[in-house]
Design brief:
By secondary structure, the chain is mostly beta strands. The chain is 6% helix and 36% strand. The chain is built from three helices and 30 strands.
Length: 449
Amino acid sequence: MSDQTNLLGLPYIMPSQAQKHVTHNEALRLLDATIQLSVVSRGLTAPPETPAEGDRYIVGGGAEGTWSGKDGLVAAFQDGAWTMLTPREGWLAWVADEHKLVCRTGGIWAALEESFSQFQNLSLLGIGTTADAANPFAAKVSKALWSAPYVADGGSGDMRFTMNKESAANTVSLLMQDGWAGRAEIGLCGDDDLSLKVSPDGAGWATAMRVETATGRPCFPQGLVHSTGAAVAQYIPTDPGSVFRLDVSRPATPRTFALSGVSGTTLTLSSASAGQIFGTAMRGLAAVRIWNTSKAPAEAAWVDYDLSAASLRVTDAAHVAGWSAGDALRFGDPNPTGANALQMVAIDISGFLQNALGAVFPQKGVMLLIYASSSNGPAAQSYSGTGAAGTALGQNALGDGMGNQISVPVTTPTPSPISNSNLLFVRESLAATATDLTVAFCRVLGVYA
């Protein structure tokens, strides 16, 4: 049987031993030096000149004098002499002058946090702050550094920060706040498209950018803005579509007609003049505004189909519910109608947008191909986004009435009252010897979004 314990080397009281109290007291001295180990320092290489009774030190590397060869041992000053304790793997000690807990590992004393290589299944972790159930990982720091392990260190040199959500309907994002109120968020928010949202107050949010997962195409719901603050339009080329085309001989706008009857959404004219208002090429692409000037104030309706030479269809029966035979109809807005001082005809192009782009939206402008012809002179078709004086752009027929065409961009800032698109305005005019317009049209070649 050994005469001391295996772990701390405490002496046993042996059978028939005299002065048992000596052995017992020695064991108590060793326990007193070892249990709840707290040392003054771990940097001294020689005994201090005036140690206090009970002081303990971890002997530093390269020890000298009476501590020579005792590197890493625990020196305890007891009863006026130094007792050396040999630490075992896993001992913990508090170093008072460093305010740090150290651990004996691999033959050295290391700061406790340096001795751990793994932390698994932690439920809370707070760095510089307190983590809680709502924020199980919380950090309050000035900087955070993430780096890939280099190839020389056994890594790949790459680093990816992975965040995952359960399903498309959930959110995984990076939320940036000011005073704990959200200001910007980027991520997959409620779907799998990448979105960037911003907020002035943390309550109302606007999506500045969205990238479709399926196509990789970015869109900017709020539009783009130049450094001057002016909106930057994005040009989208489209297949040509005739949002206004009339092929019959007719006078300039505004034109007037007599109403023969109303039935639901059908208006019947007193003459075969429907072709002076709506053409077959416009079907499904546009609606034009007409006015009942027999009403006070004048009432508007929107024509979206030519049913026959004398009948037209309107978009909403409620618009013409009070109209009756004998009422006077006007093709060309009364003056004033908003900014439309030129009494131009309003055109809603939502059908074209849906057909060409698959969506109806408030377009900023359109690129038009304008063609005008006449029986005998320079008749003209002009277009505007408001109808305001000085805004009309267009093309005249040649002096003998032969057709002539031009392409022009037209801004369209006026919201349509019947769709989410913006209106386009047209005026047909006669000059010099011209007595009519014949074939005249405008085709949309592209849209500014």
